[in-house]
Amino acid sequence: NKIELDGKATVQLADIPKVRFSLHSSNIDLDEFLGLNQPADKTASTGGEQTGGASGSSASEVEPDLSALKGLDVKGKITIDKFKAANAHMQKVTADFSVNRGVAELTSFSSELYSGSITAKGKLDARQSPATYSAVKRIKGV
User: Fold this and answer.
1) Within its chain, how far is the Cα of 107 from the centroid?
2) pLDDT tens for residues 35-51?
3) Strands 6-12 vs 116-125: parallel, antiparallel or unpaired
4) Is the CB of residue 120 less than 8 Å from the CB of residue 133?
5) E strands within the chain?
6) Which segment of 20-29, 36-45, 46-55, 72-81 scores lowest on mean pLDDT?
7) What number of other Cβ atoms are within 10 A of residue 28's Cβ?
């Protein structure tokens, strides 16, 4: 799907496998990858909206199952020179994140967007229910 990555990764097998990686891509078009650049079929999207609306209201009342995060030990960095998502064109995207035994953390995210920048970090603690989360974001000059 025209997505090329280079970098390195290591995996240490254990009860909870330990995965570490550093990946780079010169260009990722997420819209193309997800098929969002295609003209939408109006009949299909109308039916999808009706179905999505009915299930969306009940889904918001149920705490998501985040138990899979407890079996992960992943830490990595991704850098993307050019990135397109939801028709937003970003450059110099970097993201450092980890998932360790129920705690998912975006330790840093930064990107240039048009003539400005975006930075963010966040944390999701799924070791208890309901899960707790925090996020700090800054958008400047976009």
Assistant:
1) 13
2) 887 655 544 444 444 44
3) unpaired
4) no
5) 6-12, 18-29, 73-85, 88-100, 103-113, 116-125, 132-140
6) 46-55
7) 22
In the chain, what percentage of residues exceed pLDDT 90?
65
d(CA 123, CA 106): 6
Contact between 82 and 113 (Cβ < 8 Å)? no
pTM above 0.85, yes or no: no
Helix, strand, or coil (residue 51): helix
Closest by alpha carbon to 85, among 95, 76, 72, 75? 95
Place of tokens 């969002």: 36
13: which 2 tokens? 């097998």
